[in-house]
Amino acid sequence: MDDVQEAQSSRPSRRVLETVTFARPRCPRCDGVHLRKYRSIRDQGDGSSLCWVRCIAPDCGHRFRLLLE
Ligand SMILES: [Zn+2]
Predict the structure, then answer these.
(1) Cα-to-centroid distance, 7 and ligand 1 (Å)
(2) What is the domain extent for residue 33?
(3) Domain assignment of residue 11, yes or no
(4) How many CA atoms lie within 13 A of 25 on its CB side?
(5) 11 CA distance to ligand 1 centroid (A)?
């Protein structure tokens, strides 16, 4: 169903929206995507959050930090 304001507008109703990619974090050692968070600071005061994660790939286990801006 179309939005009412969109339908009354003179602009075309089907605009192409910008796409912003939110990439999943990957392990810097093995490029794996299966990570387990074991500690986090939800908000560091500036809206960003920091997590400590461990790669759960059986032959990796690399630990690193993850910063979400
Ligand atoms: Zn890994």
Answers:
(1) 49
(2) 26-69
(3) no
(4) 19
(5) 48
